[in-house]
Amino acid sequence: MFGQQFNFGSLASAAAAIANFLVIAGGGSGGSSLGGGGGAGGLRTSYGSNSGGGGSAESEITLADGTTYTFTVGAGGAIPTQGNTYHGNDGSVSSIAATGLTTISTVGGGGGGSFMNCATFNSHGDVRNGRSGGSGGGAGYTNVKAYGGENNCPDDFVGDGGARTSNQGYVGGNSPGNQVNHYYGPGGGGGASAAGTNGPYGNRAGGAGGSGLAVAITGSSVTYAGGGGGGTFSGSAQPAGSGGAGGGGAGGKGANGTAGTANTGGGGGGAGRSAGVANRCGGAGGSGIVVVKELSKASGVWSMQSQFQAKQQGTWPEFGYDIDYMVVAGGAGGAGDGPIAGGGGAGGYRASGYGPSPLQGSSLFLAGGCFSITVGAGGAGGTNPTDYGSNGNPSVFSTITSTGGGGGGGSPGRAGQPGGSGGGGAGASSNYQAGCGNTPPSDPPQGQPGGTGRSGQPFAGGGGGGATQAGLNAPGSTAGKGGDGAPNTILGPDTSYGGGGGGGAGTYLNPFPSAMPAIPGGAGGGGAGGGHPSFNPSGGNFTPAVSGTANTGGGGGGSASGNGDGGPGGAGGSGIVLVRGPSAVTFSVAPGTNSTATHPGGDKLATFTVSGTLTVS
C-alpha cells in the first residue's frame, strides 16, 4: 500500500527520553564442502529479562536532547565462493553510537569450518575449525582415514567449534574426530541462547544450529540469532543439520547450504557434498538488525526552538513517497564453440511489492529529486573452445543493485562463473562445477546457482541459474535446462524475467553417436542451448545457441559443437528497471527511449530499457 510518510532517517532527539534497545550483528556464512554452520550474530538487548549468551538484560539508554544517533546494521557473512575446503565468512558488526553514549556494539557471527582430512590438512592448511564471533561457527567434517591414512594425521585430529563473545552468544559445535573414531559430521553454528550441536560420530549427519533468543521489543515475540546447521553427503541416510530457531539456515544435503534469514542475524547453513561435485557453497549469513523503543513517557519539553534547530540541522521530517521497483541485471553469455558449453546465468533479480513474495524486498522511500538509473548490458557469448561466456553487467536504482549473471563454463571443463544467478558448468572428465548464485549475497536472494555439466562422452553442459530455480544438471546425453525466472505484475501483465540459458550438447566423436536435441532456456528470457537435432554421420547439422531476450536479463544458451563447428554461445539479454509509485507522485524520464504510464488503478509507472534518469516530484 502506497502513501506519503514522514521519514526521520538518523534519529535526533529534541528532548531527553528513556529507551530500550536490541542490537544484533550479521550472522556468519556456512563453510563449503561438508561445512559447519555459521554462527549467529552477537545479540545484546535491554528488553525483557535475558540478553544473548545467557547474560541478563542490560540497562536502558537515555536519548539526549539534540544528539544524533548513528545506527549500523551489520551485513551477513558472504557465501564462500572459493570452492572446496574454504571456511565461511564472518558477519559484520552492528552498533548504536553517539556523543555521550558508550557505543553498544555486537560482534558478527563466526564462519563455519570446512571439510578437512589428512591430505587437505597437509596441502591447504587448517580450515576445519569454526571461526570465533558473537556466536561461534560450527566445525567442518573431519576424516582421519581418508586421503592420507591415520599415520599422516596429527595425533588429535579434532575440528573445534568457534569461540563465542561473552554475553552475546554461544560456541559452535565440534567435529571431534580422532585416530580411533575416524570421522564425525560437521558441527552446527552457535546461537544466542544455545551452543551448536556437535557433529555425531559415524553417520555423517550435520549438527543442528543453536537456538536463538525470543525478544518482544517490537510488540510481538520474535526469535532472533539462530545458528546455521551443518551439511552432509547427498547419499547419507542421515539428515543435514537444521537451522536454529531465530533465522538459522539449514545445512545442505549434497547441496548448497540455506542462507540465514534477513534481519535476524541467523547463521548460514553449511554446504553438503555429492559424488563428483565438490564445489558446494555454504549459505550466506542473515543481516543484523537494530531496534530502539522509547518507554511510555519522555522527560523534558519539546520546545519550538528545538524543532527549529532540527529543521536547520536537516533532521526535520522529510516528505516523500513509498516507491516499488523491479531491478534486473544483464544476463550472462553462454560458453562458445565447444561440445561442453554451460548456459549463461540470469541477471540478478530484485523487486518489492510485486512478484513471488519470498523475493520481495522493502520498498524505497524517495523524496523529490533526480535519480540516476543504470540498465546492465548482457554479457557476450563465448567465441572459441576455451572461452567462458562473459558475465552480465549490473543494473542500479537508488540503493538497489542487481549483479550481472555468471558466465557459462566452457572447454576444457571449466566451472560456471558466480553472479546474480550462476553460470552452468561445462561437461568434461572432471572439474565441471556450476557457478554459485546470489553473489554477492542480498536479502532476499537475487538468483540461484547454475547446473553441473556431464562428464564423459557425449558431453553436455549444465543450465544457467534463474531467479527462482537453479539451472538443471545435465542428466545424460542431453544438456541441462536453464532455471526459470520470476513472474512479476508491477506493470500489470504477468511477465517473467531472469531465466537462465540452456546448456549446449556435443561430442568430439565423428560421426556423432546419436541426436542431441537443443535444450530450452528458463522461463523469463533464457536462450536455448545449441544441439544436434538429428543424427548426421558426416558431422555438422548443429542448432546454434540462442541469445537471452532483451530487457529480461535472460542468460544466453551454451554452444553445441561437433569438433569445433558449433558457433558462438548465445549473448545474455539486457536488463531492465521498472518503477511504480502512488497516484500523487509524478515521474519523468530521460532519454526518450524510456517511458512513463499510468496504471488503470491510478499508480504511476516508469520503464527503463536503457540507462537514464528518473525525476520524482
Strand portion: 15-25%
Rg, alpha carbons = 26 Å
**How many individual β-strands?**
31
Coarse morphology: flat
Low-confidence stretches: 1-14, 146-151
Number of helices: 2
Coarse structural class: mainly beta
Report the span from N to C terminus: 19 Å
What profile does the largest beta sheet have?
Answer: 8 strands, mixed
The residue fraction in helices comes out at under 10%
Mean pLDDT: 84
What does this protein look like?
There is one protein chain. By secondary structure, the protein is mostly beta strands. It is 3% helix and 21% strand. The chain has helices spanning 118-124, 304-312, and strands spanning 4-7, 11-12, 17-24, 43-45, 61-63, 68-72, 94-98, 101-106, 116-117, 142-143, 183-184, 213-215, 222-224, 289-298, 318-328, 349-352, 360-361, 364-366, 369-374, 395-397, 400-402, 459-460, 486-488, 495-497, 505-507, 561-562, 576-581, 587-590, 595-598, 604-608, 612-616. The strands form eight sheets. Strands 1, 15, 16, 17, 18, 27, 29 and 30 form an eight-stranded mixed sheet that branches. A five-stranded antiparallel sheet has the order 21-20-19-31-28, with no helix packed on it. Strands 2-6-7-8 form a four-stranded antiparallel sheet, with no helix packed on it. The relative contact order is 0.12. Mean pLDDT is 84; it is low at 1-14 and 146-151.
